[in-house]
Structure formats: structure tokens, C-alpha cells
Amino acid sequence: MQPHISSERQSKAMARLDVTETFHRISFPGHLHTQESLSYATGFQFQDSDTLIVTYPKSGTTWMQEALTLVFNKGDSTLAHSMPNWARAPWLEQYYCPEVLRASRGPRIITTHLPYHLLAPALQGSKAKVIYVARNPKDVAVSYYHFHKMANFLPEPGSFKEFLSKFLSGTVHYGSWFDHVKGWTSQARNKLNFFYITYEEMWQDLRGSLERLSTFLQCPLVVEELNSVQQHCTFSAMKENSMVNYTLIPEEIMDHTKGQFMRKGKIGDWRNTFMEEQNRNFDEVFKAEMQDSQLRFVWESPEKLDSEARTVTQNPALHGA
């Protein structure tokens, strides 16, 4: 059952659909974020038994929330089909989080889109497990653009060209993708109980990714349990599950006539949106921003890379060169 959120707080949130909160020079949708809730997040008292999912928006957050729910429940999908994902793994920086956590039982799964520098003080000295999910920023940009078109609590995105320009400059809500990834992967991974995985790894080898995840979580699964986890957190299964596909959200908040929250779930779909000039410009910005990063990004399947060998030499930045 979903933890109770007071009707008064819900009404206030509805009244803030057009509000933008600015916190440490980063914009957040005021519908779900307040100065109070953002300050609560940065001063949060983590427990050693907590598991924190960290993502930039549209990078596989829902997927990881579902995976953790199923792993911790040994493949039993009862909770995954009876409680919304935001009640199972609330966003730390959103206004309803304290009420949800007060009602929670057992080890807590918490979600955040906050950059590392805002949570570093709260996590210092903590043994909480941190899972960071990264995704090809080109696919992130396309997915985020479509989400803006249906989410009434986000600004109108304008044309994709206009939105992409804001994305590359880091002036979209939640800030810069580049700063987010670099902050968490270059600093947090050496200081925290840290697990890094990409959306693409999960897409290419879901079973192997789940095995790695269960090992990190110290939650071993027998074959039947792993089979069940894998079955229930495929894209097709999640798309049909109202507890994760956001169809429970009222039309006033998320206009489902303008798109689906679970849209495609593919990798490399950015090619259907990017113009050639936009792709070149993106590659230049990526190379400049990520030149000091030690991460090796492999955004495509091995078969795709083999068939596009020439693209690798022309576009080394997105292939980890």
C-alpha cells in the first residue's frame, strides 16, 4: 500500500506546477521540490543499510528501482505490482520523501538525481551502498526532450534544436549531464561503497547485470529467483505495470496524450532524432567536457560497433577513445 501523503501537501504541489526552484544554481521543478526538501536532502542522515540509486534524469532510474525491488524480494513481484516505484524508492530531494521513509520497513531504497557535491557531506563516512547508472547522453537528451513534452511540471522544451542547446550548456532542470557523471564517477567511486553500471550494459546483458548487482548488494539469488527478477524487469514487463509506467499520475501533471513515460527503452535511438550537424556539435562538446574522465563508454552492442567501424574513428568521443 502506498504511504499516505497529506492532501494539503498534494494540493500545494499541484499549485506549483509552473514553479522552478533554484538551489545551488541548479534548477529543479517546483512541483516536487522546495527549498526545504532540497535542504533536507543535503543534510540527510544515511543509514549504513541504505541503498542509494543515483542517476541523471532519463538514464535508467525506473529500471534500477524495479531491479532493486525484485532483487531484495528474491524475485517475488508482489511489491513491484502493488506499490508505486516512488513509494518503494522515493527521491530524496522531493517533498514527500520524509513521510514515505517514516512509513518504510526494512532496508531502505532511496533515489536521487542530485549531483555529487550536494550529497557528499551527507554521505561522508557512511557505509550506505551507492549505485550509479549512466546512459549515452545522446539517448538521454532525446528521452528528456520527449519527457518535457508530456510532463506539465517541466518547461516547454521548444524545438529539439533549442532543447539540445540547453542540454549541452547544462541549463536544463537538474543541471549538466557532464558535471553529474564526472562528479559521481571521478570522486564518489573512490570514497563510497560504490557500484557503477550503464543503461547499455543492462540492455545488452540484463541477466549478467542482475547477477553483478545482487553480488554487490550481498543478496545472492538462486536460479529460479534470478529468472523471476529478469522476467519482471524487462522493458515490456515494466511498460505494462502501472506501478512503474506512471499511468497512475493524473493528466494535469503528466499528459499521457502527448507520449508515454515508458517510450522505447532502446539504445542508439538518438539517430532517429539528431541531425548530422547536431551530432557533430554534440561530439565536440562531449570530447571537450569528458577529456579528463577515466571512464570508458561503450554505448553500442559489439555487433553494432563492428558494423560501424568507420564511425568509431570519426567519432572517438562516444566510443571511449
Automatic annotation (TrEMBL):
<dbReference type="Pfam" id="PF00685">
    <property type="entry name" value="Sulfotransfer_1"/>
</dbReference>
<feature type="domain" description="Sulfotransferase">
    <location>
        <begin position="48"/>
        <end position="293"/>
    </location>
</feature>
<keyword id="KW-0808">Transferase</keyword>
<dbReference type="GO" id="GO:0008146">
    <property type="term" value="F:sulfotransferase activity"/>
</dbReference>
<protein>
    <recommendedName>
        <fullName>Sulfotransferase</fullName>
        <ecNumber>2.8.2.-</ecNumber>
    </recommendedName>
</protein>
<keyword id="KW-0128">Catecholamine metabolism</keyword>
<dbReference type="GO" id="GO:0006584">
    <property type="term" value="P:catecholamine metabolic process"/>
</dbReference>
<keyword id="KW-0963">Cytoplasm</keyword>
<dbReference type="InterPro" id="IPR000863">
    <property type="entry name" value="Sulfotransferase_dom"/>
</dbReference>
<dbReference type="GO" id="GO:0006805">
    <property type="term" value="P:xenobiotic metabolic process"/>
</dbReference>
<dbReference type="GO" id="GO:0005737">
    <property type="term" value="C:cytoplasm"/>
</dbReference>
<dbReference type="InterPro" id="IPR027417">
    <property type="entry name" value="P-loop_NTPase"/>
</dbReference>
<comment type="similarity">
    <text>Belongs to the sulfotransferase 1 family.</text>
</comment>
